[in-house]
């Protein structure tokens, strides 16, 4: 199997999609991109995959671990089966870009798009970097075919001016979530709502996690309930629980009912814990491996792009099941230690038997624990010896700092 870093979209159409266990999920039907201002190459957001009963779902590009000429393989984790709905600012390559009329900038001749090439950058992101375009033919003959870079044609990028939300979002495309959150806070309320509605679910979820609670609630309240539930699903469970905890019981229960059960259940469990305890600030989705897993498997898991650096610093070894609450917790393996061991060795042979935190441990105890053992993440285990989550240092800092620390940072 050869993993490629470049592919033409027409060749992806119809490819089978598999999960990490080799089970078939569906097949590729289209590629979703976000156009940018001017001639900047569009960012690839994900794939439209057709599953059972011709239902089409969205799979973020970050979930794609292998792309080869015969198949697409996804990383582990829950796959949302919600029907794909195209958002503002999103463009379907096969459905909307092909056959579009463009202008070849070098010769100033017209042409039509017949295919589009996507490419993985050094940072791991995918962009739509190349186009196959064809000039109009004469006397029934086909015109000349060209392969050109995205910035060698005109007529596809977003305009530099105007008040459409798509243009503003394209301007903000390169900002990290924290900087985009600051930019949103400076916008008028109506404009902020337009931008929030136009952002894709994952991007909006990341931005909400960087906003003060009052702004989170205000933005969530402007969304229709089904969209709000979609955004909560892709948020980290601990962030979603913190946000829902600020809502009324009626609104909270309604949104939890609209979420997929597999996504709502861990959030419900986190809501049971008291705020400012290990259970109240932990995430329920750490990296968990069975004791017969190898060092190579562990290193592959911590490479998953959606993991934060803190959560990627450790692998927790537990008896099945591997989803929290797991089977009996056996210990943790530090990523730095894994890098020094043979890839074929078992991860259970390099465990640190550090005493884990209890869910009811107060914030002061959690802070002392991190300082004592020089950690950036720590396991949380219940009375039955099951791993229920992990606390990361960013969550500890978030609860130690004043409630308005984000607002102070925005003001400089």
Automatic annotation (TrEMBL):
Alphabetized Gene3D superfamilies for the sequence: CBS-domain, MgtE N-terminal domain-like
GO molecular function term, any single one: magnesium ion transmembrane transporter activity
Residues annotated as domain CBS: 350-407
Keywords: CBS domain
Leader sequence segment: none
Pfam families with a match to the protein in the record: CBS (PF00571), MgtE_N (PF03448), PRC (PF05239), SH3_actinomycetes (PF26205)
InterPro entries membership: CBS_dom (IPR000644), CBS_dom_sf (IPR046342), Mg_transptr_MgtE_intracell_dom (IPR006668), MgtE_N_sf (IPR038076), MgtE_transporter (IPR006669), PRC-brl_dom (IPR027275), PRC_barrel-like_sf (IPR011033), SH3_actinomycetes (IPR058838)
Chaperone among keywords: no
Keyword Glycoprotein found: no
Cellular component GO terms, alphabetical: membrane
PANTHER family (alphabetical): MAGNESIUM TRANSPORTER MGTE
Name the UniProt record assigns to this protein: Mg/Co/Ni transporter MgtE (Contains CBS domain)
Organism field: Geodermatophilus pulveris
């Amino acid at each position: 199997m050869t993993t490629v870093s470049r592919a033409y979209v027409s060749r992806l159409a119809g490819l089978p999609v598999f999960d990490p266990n080799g089970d078939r999920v569906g097949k590729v039907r289209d590629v979703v991109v976000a156009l940018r201002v001017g001639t900047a190459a569009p960012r690839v957001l994900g794939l439209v995959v057709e599953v059972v009963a011709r239902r089409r779902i969205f799979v973020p590009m970050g979930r794609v671990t292998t792309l080869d000429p015969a198949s697409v393989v996804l990383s582990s984790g829950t796959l949302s089966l919600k029907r794909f709905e195209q958002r503002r600012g999103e463009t379907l390559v096969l459905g909307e870009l092909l056959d579009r009329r463009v202008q070849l900038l070098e010769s100033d001749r017209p042409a039509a798009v017949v295919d589009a090439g996507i490419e993985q950058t050094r940072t791991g992101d995918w962009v739509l970097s190349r186009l196959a375009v064809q000039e109009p033919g004469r006397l029934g003959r086909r015109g000349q075919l060209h392969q050109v870079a995205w910035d060698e044609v005109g007529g596809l990028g977003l305009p530099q001016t105007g008040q459409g939300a798509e243009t503003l979002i394209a301007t903000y495309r390169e900002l990290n979530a924290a900087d985009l959150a600051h930019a949103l806070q400076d916008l008028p309320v109506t404009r902020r709502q337009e931008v929030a509605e136009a952002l894709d679910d994952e991007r909006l979820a990341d931005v909400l996690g960087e906003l003060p609670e009052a702004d989170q609630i205000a933005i969530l309240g402007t969304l229709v309930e089904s969209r709000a539930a979609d955004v909560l699903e892709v948020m980290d469970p601990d962030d979603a629980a913190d946000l829902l905890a600020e809502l009324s019981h009626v609104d909270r229960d309604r949104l939890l009912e609209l979420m997929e059960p597999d996504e709502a259940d861990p959030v419900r469990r986190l809501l049971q814990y008291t705020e400012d305890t290990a259970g109240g600030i932990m995430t329920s989705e750490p990296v968990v491996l069975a004791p017969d897993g190898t060092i190579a498997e562990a290193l592959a898991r911590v490479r998953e792009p959606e993991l934060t650096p803190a959560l990627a610093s450790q692998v927790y070894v537990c008896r099945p099941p591997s989803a929290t609450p797991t089977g009996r917790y056996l210990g943790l393996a530090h990523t730095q230690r894994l890098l020094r061991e043979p890839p074929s060795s078992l991860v259970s042979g390099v465990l640190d038997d550090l005493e884990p935190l209890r869910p009811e441990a107060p914030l002061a105890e959690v802070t002392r624990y991190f300082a004592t053992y020089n950690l950036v993440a720590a396991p949380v285990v219940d009375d039955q010896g099951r791993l229920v989550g992990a606390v990361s240092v960013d969550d500890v800092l978030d609860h130690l700092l004043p409630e308005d620390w984000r607002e102070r940072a925005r003001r400089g």
